[in-house]
Every structure is written in C-alpha cells, then in structure tokens.
Amino acid sequence: MRVGFLRVLLIVVALGVHAEVQTWTGEGVPAPEPVTAKITLGAYIFPGWYRDTGRGDYPYRTHDEDSEWKWAVAKQPAPRPLLGFYDDSLPEVNDWHIKWALEHGISFFAFDWYWNAGEKRLARTLEQGFLKARYASQMKFCVHWCNHALDWKRDGKPAPLDFSKPALLQMTEYLADHYFKLPNYLTVDGRPVLLVYVPGALIQANGGPAGFRAVLEEMNRLLRAKGLKDLYCVALGDGRNAAESGFSAFSAYAYYGADLDSKYEWKRGYSLPYADMLKHFETMWQIYSPRKEPHYIVPVGSNWDDRPRARKNATVITGRTPDLFEQHCRASLTYIDPRNNLAIIEAWNEWGEGSFIEPDAEFGFAFLDRVRRVYTDAPDAHIDLVPSASKVISFSMLNPEERAAAKALESQPYPAPPLALRTTQVVADVPLPAGSPLKAWEFAENAEGWFVHQTEPLRVENGVLIARATGDDPQIIATGLNIDIAEIDAIVLRMRAPEGMRTGQGFWATDKEPALSGSKAFGIGLKSDGEWHTYRITKTLDATWCGKLRTLRFDFGTAGDTVEVDWIRIYKK
Description:
By secondary structure, the chain is of the alpha/beta class. The chain contains twelve helices and 33 strands.
C-alpha cells in the first residue's frame, strides 16, 4: 500500500512526457508495477559502487577497494544520481533499480562480471545486492563476462588472464551453480545467455575458431550434465569468426564514435555532438543487422562523458536530449533480430563514463520515460516514485563532509572540451571543385602508373580501373608525384564499391614525410550500394600535410572484394 506521498516534480510539457515524480515515505521499496515491452530489453549494469577508500591508487589497481564515488564522480560537478552516492551491494538499492527498470519496459540487467581462473572482482553488487533484493525474482539478469586485464592475482602475485579449457570449465561450473539454475536467469529458447566482452582472446587462446568451438562444446556438455541447456553465447564486437567459433549471437557494448563523413571525430580530450554519435550507431546497425549468422542483439547507446575518470583526457558527447534519445530508441526497433527479439542499452549506471539512463539530478526520469514511450504501449501518464532524502543519505558511501564537498562542486562551471574538427574531410556526392585538375587519372586505356599490393594486376575495361583484392591488405598506389600541397584544393575519386564494403583508407607521403604510416592516414566512408559515387577529400595543412605530395595510396576491402574506379583527380585551388 502506498503511504506518505509528497509531490516533488511534475513533468508535462517541457519534456513531452506526462510523468509525475513523488517521494515515497513508507517502509522499504513499494512493489514494482511492470509494463510489457514490445521486445526483450535490457541494460548493462556496472557494479562496484559499494567500494570504499582503498589505498588511493584509483582507478586501475585495487578494483575491490577504491571507490569511484570518492575518487572520481564526487570530485566533479556532475553527474548526480537521484539515489545519491549509493552502496549497490544493498538489496534495497537494487530494489529501486528493479522497480524503475520494470516500470519503464526494461526486463533484464546484464551485469558486468569480472572473473579470471577462480578469482572474482566487483561481485558483491550481483551476489549480495541484486540476488538478495526483495523483487529480484521479477527481474531477469545475465552475466556479461568482462574478460580483460585487471588487477588479477595468483598466490599474491600479478597473474595473466587464463582462457584455457580447465579455466573455462571451472568458470562454467560456477556460473551454472550460482546463476544459470536460477529461474530469473535470462535465456533464449531456454539457453542461458552469456555475453563475452573480448571474444577474440578466447578464440586465439584456444587455437582459433575450431579450437574454441571444441572447448565450448565441453562447456555445454558440463551444463547438460547439470540439467541445463547449451549456452547462448554472445560475442561483443564486430562478430568476426563468431559463428565459426560457436557463438550464438553477436552484439556490442556500444558504438560510440562518429561516421567517417562527420565533420567531427571521436578523440581524447575533445567533444563530439550527440547527433553525430546517434548517426554512427545507426550506420553500424545497418552494417551488422543483415547478417544471417549468428543472431544479432541491437546495442542502444545512452551517452559518453568520462570526465569523472579521465579528467582532461576525457572524450565527451555533448548535446544529449531526451528528444534525440527517443529518436535513437525508435530507430533501433527497425534492426531488432526476430530470432531473439533482444536489445540492450549501454548503460544503466556507468556514472564514471557518463553512460547512464538511471535517473539523475539533471534529467530526472526523462530518459527512462522515453524508453517506456518507445519500447512499450504503456500510457505516458504514470507516477515515478523516489525514496526520501533521509533514505538516500542512508544508502550513501560518502560521509557528511564528503557529501558537502561534492554538493559545493555542483555550482562550479563544468564546460565540455572543444569539438574535434576532422583535419581530413571526406564527403560523398557533392559538386566538384571549381578549379581545374593539377593531376588526373582517367583510366582511358591503362592503369596510368598505379600499381598494387595484395591485389590482382590492375585492368581497365571501358575506361574503368578494376582492382580485385587477393589479401586482407589490398592497396593501389601512385608514386613519383611532385605536387605542391599548398596548391591542392581537393582529391576526388569516382568509384563503385560492392555491397558490404563500408570503409576504406587513404595514405600519403611527402618530401618531408617520405614514409607511409598510420599517422598519415584517413578513413573513407563508402556507400556500398553498387552504384557510382564521388568522394571529395580535403585536408587542413599541418606538419604532415605540407611540402610536396610524393605518394598517394588507397586501401579498399579484403580478399575477394572488387572495386571499380572511374577516375581520380587532384584539383587545384
């Protein structure tokens, strides 16, 4: 029964959602009132918000001791969770998370889970907090194995990661006995879901796709002996070798970044517009969702701002709004794989990285309310309950002095770093430069001096240069150029890329910088529709793009891919 409501906020017109926020002053956490989503929607949980002062060597050495609240989040003016600087090993904190998630269409949490050959990190959130919460049985959960470097030890000494068969079978036994047998563990067709952050490391450590598939069969055999079904194992990343290695699906933690034709780039110490990040997510959905095998789980982004952790070296996405987030969520529905009907949001509570949809002081429930609007048919009008101020203080990992210091910071300026304007801009299908070419390759009869690496001998048919890759690093190269870079307006090429080829690269060398290298490279976002397109490349003069242009190189595709080039021109200013 609800008692003691205190109305604190009414959000109607400003954020476009009719949701009333009220304070709960009763005992415990009121029961969730779940709404049914159109898909099975989850959110990643970053654990460990129970940590205390530790030894002060934050952030990467004592993961079960040092507090991100104390050493990171509370040291900056933002963000500020509505639950305060909470202890997430408390069942009551988890009950608030469960209630808020279920009432907005999120039906499972994917807990970041740290394990190496029997050693665990940050496990109290799941095992003492969530699993002992009053309403845990109403909320599904699964494990996201973060199989990467950490402060792993063995016999008191630093230990390497162990992906051997014995170590993986030991882990499988623990997962089965502690999680998989629980009725609220997430399954697909009855198969327990296990997400793997770095699948390539498992594949490589076991001798390649066939070797890991054999180990995975051993893991499944162990599960069958315990009365469980085979794993629904999910590879995060680009899905490379996933199907051949036995993974059932692939996904990603997130696709934060920008498309190659964006004016801005994803760069440490700089910002990126939120709209550009959302466009990049959809580009990646378009690339990966058509794959037939394995299944696809759509990753949905929230935001990124890791100033609490990275300080001056942070990357910050700016311009986040509930309206843009709603558009992003709505677009994701187009790419849902009907074979699993799954999507997962990054993240519920990554406060140190600025990736969260959990209610905060800036936006309240606005982002959760947009999740409810897009992914469910529940009415906009609803009540969101929050605990009292005294209850929030009871959850806190910070003492009164630390809370006061954090509060004082909130009034300080918190400007984001400047936008990172790309020094190389690649734009498709825009008017050609007004100037005449300084150099042009029209390929009327032959390759006109271009040569190749890991590509069949170039041939020209009907005025088109045809390049078929024979390896995974195909290159077409022109050398012996002697063009004053200060006179160059743009490099333009007209080409046709096969379906599925989304990106290429360009490289250059000059009289002052004669070597080709990754420091002198730029990406090219390709339109892979099998049609002809022009790509205009412009560069800002800098230490590596000056003097005389000597070499120009383009890399397109991998073994078996064929590209066609109508012409390449270097236009003068």
